[in-house]
Amino acid sequence: MEVKNRIFNWLSELKEKEVPVEVIGFYQELPIRVKTKLLDFDENFLQWEYNPKLYLTASDDGKFFFYFNDPLYKEKRLLGADVTYYGNSFIETTFPKPFSDPRFGRQIVRVTTSEKLPVKFYLLSESGEEIALPVRDISEEGVGVVGEKGFLKVGEPIKSKLILPRGELLLEGKVVSSEPLGDKNRFGIKFSIREREKKLLRDYVMARQKEILSKIRDLVE
Question: Domain 3-103's class?
């Protein structure tokens, strides 16, 4: 039996028994887990019960994830689906399929930056020039910055200046990833960092987590 048929049978059972499913979405890089019911589905689309937290993740990331106990392999498999519609009555996604997403393998928390808690990043050239790059996300070990495609290469060592709300750091590191982001690229930079510097980054991440969770609470109350 093909995997799509096995998923179809699983969804049929969920709908018939009205069993809530744990749906995982991402908002500002934080995973949000919500139990909700499957309202209807066919071979192409699924309709999910409206939930304000899921609405938030749908508008931000546009993908939902679920864990499926595959009877053939007798193990949990991650499924992913694209959000095609979200409104105040239901949320619609494509039919789910086995998916791989690096966010599920993270060992540390990553968050996006915000206007209230801004972060500035400057690449320092050998000549002393400071090249500003927008910061998309940050963790206690590094940042994701946005630049033109090919501007940085994976494995390239860098020197940088990072300005946080509570301090400024001069950091060395290297480019560890490069992935498309619209018409530009997101470059992942991992710092060679001491504990004091890591604490400053960790404090920022915790402050952003509180800001994000506060917004979610305000939405659902």
Answer: mainly beta
